Task: structure prediction
Amino acid sequence: MPIPSHRVLEIPELLKAIFSFLYHDSNASNAQVCELWFNLALDELWGNIGSKGLCGIFAVLSPLKGEPDTGYEFERPPNSTGWKRFEKYASHVKRLSYDSKPKLKQSVFNEISRTRRRLEIFPNLQTLKWVAPLNLRLCTLFMHSGIRTFAISLSEKIPPKTLFEDIADRMPNVSHLNIYSNLRIRVIEEDLAHLFKKLLKLHTVTFPRFYSTTKIIEALSSLQYLSTIESPNTSEQGAGKRLDIQTFKPTLFPGAFSALRKISITANFNDAAQFINTLFSPNTITQFRIESDLVAETPHSINRLLSVVSKNCKLIRELALVSRRDLSEEPSLFNSDNSYYGDDDNSNPLSITLEALKPLFELTNLISFEIHHHYPLLLTQHNIELFASSFPAIETLILNPGPVEMAHSTLTLDALIPLARHCPRLKSFGLFMDASIIPEISSVAPPAPFKSPICLLVGASIADEYDSSTDAAIYLSQLLAPGSTLSSNFGWDDWENINDVLRRAVMRRRDLWDNIENLMTNLINVRAQERQRTRAIMKRELEDLRVRVVELQDLLG
Result:
């Protein structure tokens, strides 16, 4: 009879949690304890495998020979005994990710296809990620109707039409589809749209930037379970060509995007406004990201888009507007040594003022807002006060911290004060500021600091020589909470075409902000330690005072 205290070791959920923290060798030993432990340990050993794990489990089928770079192959063809042994482990594989590092030779997959005893190599496989473009067709060997999540990296050398047909036929129940590619969408648009129409159970679609063409969006609009359309701006995801998305005018029908909650598209702001304002538009969305290929969208187009969104998408919680920034031309009002030589009137008609952003204040559920533009936002301290007081629940507020025209800013570090006062949930705040002008902090009534850590995105913000940088670090250390970080990431994605003058200015500002961040972090930590020390002293003095009061009361009878 088992000891009562040992019964906890028979609880599958507890064992699974414990095994998840153990090394491979430990779980290999656990698999030999008993039948319960055997299955749970194998789930941990083989549940989530990559290229190395695939080589390992195929070695159970038949020994492998070769090198990681040149590729592995079977020493001998798999036999029925090997398949019986392999199937005992194969049923535990739930997630497979293959990138051919290490590489398996074509002959391995040929032998498996020829000798297998059943159609599904991994019958319980739910997630398949194949990022080996040169071996693209091999992934069909692992496809079956039980797979719910599929990711694929496309190749220029292999036409994807047949692959798309296999995806639809072999994995009709896929709910999450992720496509990595650098192909132009016009090359595969027809076949990809046809694939989307066949995958009726799709919930999430992720594809590269510049893939959200009119035809693609129209194909996705008919999927009744589709809730998310994403286009991450990452090198891994890849990207198409800007030329393929210059016109965006989808035609929608009744029932279009009935379940859509999150969408990311690439279109100019006027086309995006028309898309949202059209009949049967996706008015249930809660997250909306629009990236425009136009350099410096006009204040009118931004105002129009925000007006349409605020009117039709009342549930919006996260909104991002990205207008393309041109890094190839030398910015105006800018010397090669980063000195400013222009006027201070900021009269550029393409600069965004609060007037253009006013419809934003009708979105009462907003917790995240981002805007990125070629020119600095022309906002005042009062405007920032309005933002902070209007959105007390805001968590992310990114107000164009990385403009290309970055010689002058209308805001200083004082812009942080309203956010610290009104927005207790703020996690990320980005703004283009002039940190060479250090505001004075009253010693009588200092501003309230942030109560929790934030990430401050300064982007292209102006920073002066190192003496002023010290003053900026001191100022920030009085407002930011311990654990806060500072980022000078400009948020640009066209670095290969950057102008030399702009590149030098950017590198110089990054150096200055790196210096400010290092000093600021040390000062914040020192202030926190000093506050703790002061509290400890006050606590001791209070205890001492209480003791004296008690003694005095006793003395007075």
